[in-house]
Every structure is written in C-alpha cells, then in structure tokens.
Amino acid sequence: MPSPLRHRSTAMGLLLLVTLLPGTTTLANPWPGFDSPAPGPSAAIGAASNGCLAGARALPAVGRGFVSIRRERNCFYGHPVLLDFVTDLGASLARHSDRRLMVGDLAQPRGGLMASRHVSHQNGLDVDIWFTLASSATEARRETANHRDPPSMVAPDGLTLSPHWGAEQRLLLKTAAEDWRVDRILVNPAIKQALCETERGDRHWLRKVRPWYRHDAHFHVRLRCPGDSPDCQPQAPPPAGDGCDATLAWWFSDEARHPARSKPQPPAPMPAACHKVLEAR
Ligand SMILES: [Zn+2]
C-alpha cells in the first residue's frame, strides 16, 4: 500500500490528468487507495451512494457470532454505530445458535467509491451480510475463497425460494429489521414476496425489507444517519405499510425483469466535507 502522502499526490495527479484529457468522462477514483481511516471524530458524510467516512473503525476479523470475510477487499470499516449493529446482531445469533454470520463489505477506510464501482457503501452505514451461516471462521473463509459466493436463497425461476432458505434466515432478517438503528434492508423480490405470503401477526418489520436487484444470497443493511453526523444525507423513508402491494408486484413484471439499459448519469458533485477526508493525513 502506498503511503497516504504518496497516494494522495498520485491520486490528485491522476485526477488532474483525466480532467485535462479532452473527451474523458471517467474520473480517477482516489478512495480505494487509502489504507487508514481519516483521523478525528467519527462522521458519516453525504449519502450511501455519494459520500465518505471520517474517523472510521475497523470491524474485527472475528467476534461473538460473526466472521468478517474477504478482508483482502479492505472494506471492513464503518461508522461506530455500524460496528455496534454487526456486533449486536452476531451476539443475538450466538444466544440461540452455534453458527456465525458471514459479514461481507462494509466500507473502505475512508468510505467513498469502491474500486469495483459498487455505488453504495460509501458513508460507512451499509453492510452486506450473507444469508448462509457458517459453523466456524475456517469454514466461512473456505466457503467464500476465490470469489465463490454462498448459495442463493432464490430458486432458478426467480419467483420462489430455494431449499437453502429456512427459519434461521427469516429470524436473522427479522432481528435486523427490528433494530432501531436500521433504515432499510435490501433483498431479492422473491424473498420479500415469500415473507409477504407467510408472515402472520406483527408485520410491521416488513416495511423496512425492500425489494432490489440480486440480493438473493446476501442482504444489504443500511442504517439511519447517526446523531453525530450532521453532513449525513438520509434517504427518503420507505412508504408507509408493509410493502406487500403493487410496488412489489412490479418487480415480477417484464419491465423489471428485463430492464432497458439506462444512460449513465454524470457523477454528482462530492459533498464538500469529503474533501477534508480525502486530504487528512
Ligand atoms: Zn451491499
């Protein structure tokens, strides 16, 4: 890893270079190069899809009830509230099971756009958690080595659930959705549909479980903006109700299943507070 100083001058040089090249539309992305968080108080800045993170904390490789996987991606940093959430979800699983959560990407040391150009996870409030549970850290690492993904919870028809789905997965999702820190959780539409059909009693938590593309082997948790982060930009809240309605049915339409290619949009300007995070030594 380059030193932050060398990294910064290299990144700035590249940024300048691509800005000067006529007809160039892709800017260099300086965020993946950082190997340390920006010092100072923790703050989530901007939006999940255009933001950054100050004073990040690193998720430990292993904790009670969880294993952090794919550490080589350097995406195991988050706002402290995100680390607390993962820690609490692992502890709650550990109270009734010997198995462990497999925790995937959080954010890079300073957040921002990932090298994979995965657009969210930028402000330290997003985490990917696999539906499959592991019996040990060793098994978790073995099962996800060489970019191998744990199995899908959705059948090949895209409409129903696979045999891998069960009571453990439902409880995991419900526990996460009922957490007050959670803003929303993205899952495959088939998973949401199955919950809509089978949940009895209190269905209030279904509101936070939102359908989205893929997300059939892992779910994506997004937290609310924490109180210590005035520059954090919240997403509009999910509509009222459990979401088991026409908006869910749309996901099974031809239009949703074969989406037309959308034109790439020019990137939104970076939040002003992220310039400091980019430049902090
Ligand atoms: Zn995600």
Automatic annotation (TrEMBL):
Q: Keywords in UniProt for this one?
A: Disulfide bond, Hydrolase, Metal-binding, Metalloprotease, Periplasm, Protease, Signal, Zinc
Query: One MF term in GO for this entry?
Result: serine-type endopeptidase activity
Any Gene Ontology CC annotation: outer membrane-bounded periplasmic space
Query: Could you state one GO biological process linked to this protein?
Result: proteolysis
> Which Pfam families does the entry mention?
Peptidase_M74
Matching entries from InterPro entries are given as: Peptidase_M74 (IPR005073), Zn_M74/Hedgehog-like (IPR009045)
Q: SUPFAM superfamilies from the entry?
A: Hedgehog/DD-peptidase
Q: Please identify the protein, giving its name as recorded.
A: Murein endopeptidase
> What species is this protein from?
Thioflavicoccus mobilis 8321
Q: What lineage does UniProt assign to this protein's organism? A: Bacteria, Pseudomonadati, Pseudomonadota, Gammaproteobacteria, Chromatiales
